[in-house]
Amino acid sequence: MSRDELRREMRDGVEFWGFEEYGALDGVMGIQPVKDVTLIRHAYVRTQRQRAGIGARLLAHLHSLASGPVLMGTWTAASWAIHFYEKHGFRVVGPEQKNALLRRYWTVPDAQAAASVVLVEHDAISKSQRKTWPADGDTEYRV
Q1: Which residue, 23, 30, 49, 60, could crosslink 42 as a Cys pair with Cβ 3.0–4.6 Å?
Q2: 74 by DSSP, 3-state: which?
Q3: What percent of the chain has pLDDT over 70?
């Protein structure tokens, strides 16, 4: 990510958190409140430090700061990222739900939306509450 893109993301409300060990920044992850959800944004761990629990620690920390359901988007081809998030309590939503969520909470070009998936935390909204989400009812579905 370029410095200008980083500044733009921060101006748009993304708060970045990092994991540093032995003086090196080994991982970074962003969090952004948008409407009634929290987005996890820009999650990166240095290749040589992956599988050391850094991503899990950052995700847990950001999850503790979140208000409302937590969502994240990634590339469909990033199977390792999808597996990581599924291992940590998230699930991929179907194509119709993905498109509705992308329109509501992200601003991405159509080509990027077509090549992306959206993941939601398993317990985003308790099924026993029988609530629909997103809250404004534009597109309703149960999570």
Answers
A1: 30
A2: strand
A3: 85
